[in-house]
Specification:
The chain has eight helices and eight strands. The protein is of the alpha/beta class. The protein has an eight-stranded mixed beta sheet with strand order 3-4-2-1-5-6-8-7. A hairpin with a 2-residue loop joins strand 3 and strand 4.
Length: 274
């Protein structure tokens, strides 16, 4: 099997075994990549809106302990921090690892946001066992050395703390060529990769849920008739839960035809450190 075949089959994760020089080049390409897409396509962030609150609440936040508070919280690639709004009253302080200078703000409804620029090799500037909650929503698939970064997240998380991950689990097309509405290097992360790395790190899986079945297609077609992004509607999230369960058997990392595209596009994890 060639390297490309191994990557497209999902057996290996493209970018996870690059040299530091290659990682540095990748990092520079991606640093402002998402911010540029936000400006080019006028996505919700430019209007002060965040499109995934119902998704994050249903698959993530509602599975955290009901009365728990989180004194120290980390957002990996969290930009303006809006993903924390549903649980902001339960948060003490927020640190954000964010490469872009264009997607930052001083505070989130009065809660200060402390920004840090990620290091090229992925090492995080925090003490061991520091954070009580971490979020990583659609960020890892922009990063080359995902295995190492997940290890850093585990190191910085306090025992009993929670890590929430939402990432695409399909290839997002052939990343060797330009793709519309995508940055240069982003690619989905195989579900088998996640399961293997989570087990290696020793996380407890509180919940693993596949979601966002055919979301890109549905947004391009029926979504154009709605005033807001489909994922902003709670009813859409409920329907998607059913669709994702029914089509989970058909998940292919690199779909080759229309039939193989009828499957969930993302996974949502609620993980706890032992």
């Amino acid at each position: 099997m060639s390297d490309l075949d191994a990557y497209l089959s999902g057996e290996r994760l493209y970018g996870d075994d690059l040299s530091i020089t290659q990682i540095a080049s990748w990092y520079e390409d991606e640093r402002e990549g998402y911010a540029q897409l936000v400006r080019r396509y006028g996505w919700a962030e430019t209007e002060g809106r965040y499109s995934y609150h119902p998704v994050n609440i249903w698959h993530g936040y509602r599975h955290l302990p009901k009365e728990a508070t989180f004194d120290r919280v980390l957002g990996l690639g969290s930009a303006t921090g809006q993903e924390f709004l549903p649980i902001l009253a339960r948060i003490g302080s927020i640190d954000i690892l964010e490469p872009s200078e264009q997607l930052k703000r001083t505070d989130l409804n009065g809660v200060p946001l402390h920004y840090h620029r990620p290091s090229v090799d992925g090492t995080m500037p925090f003490a061991d066992n520091y954070f009580h909650l971490q979020t990583c929503f659609s960020t890892l698939h922009h990063i080359p050395n995902v295995s190492y970064v997940m290890g850093q997240l585990h190191r910085c998380l306090a025992p009993g703390g929670f890590l929430l991950i939402r990432e695409p689990v399909h290839s997002m097309g052939d990343w060797r060529y330009p793709r519309p509405m995508l940055t240069k290097h982003e690619r989905g992360i195989p579900l088998t990769f996640f399961r293997r790395r989570i087990a290696e790190l020793g996380f407890t899986v509180v919940r693993e849920s596949l979601c966002l079945t055919m979301n890109s297609f549905l947004q391009r077609t029926i979504g154009r008739w709605f005033r807001r992004t489909l994922t902003e509607y709670q009813a859409y999230v409920y329907v998607d839960v059913v669709l994702s369960r029914l089509t989970a058997f058909n998940l292919h990392y690199h779909p080759k035809n229309l039939w193989q595209r009828i499957a969930p596009q993302s996974v949502f994890y609620v993980l706890q450190k032992n």
